[in-house]
Amino acid sequence: MAAKEKKSFVLRIDGATYDALERWAADEFRSVNGQMEWIVAKALKEAGRVPKGKDKKDEKK
Questions:
Q1: Which domain holds residue 32?
Q2: CB 48 within 8 A of CB 34
Q3: Residue 40 lies in a domain
Q4: What SS3 class is residue 50?
């Protein structure tokens, strides 16, 4: 498995949630996908569930 391999999946959310996410991403100069990756990475770190080798990755905020 390559170190930078990314998995893709479908996420269904309501329109209002997507709109809020889109605005937040724009405020942070990220794509919606990039914002979702950042949110998930932050939540994993805060929960102490960061996969090994990923805990030293710099966060933008």
A1: 19-48
A2: no
A3: yes
A4: coil
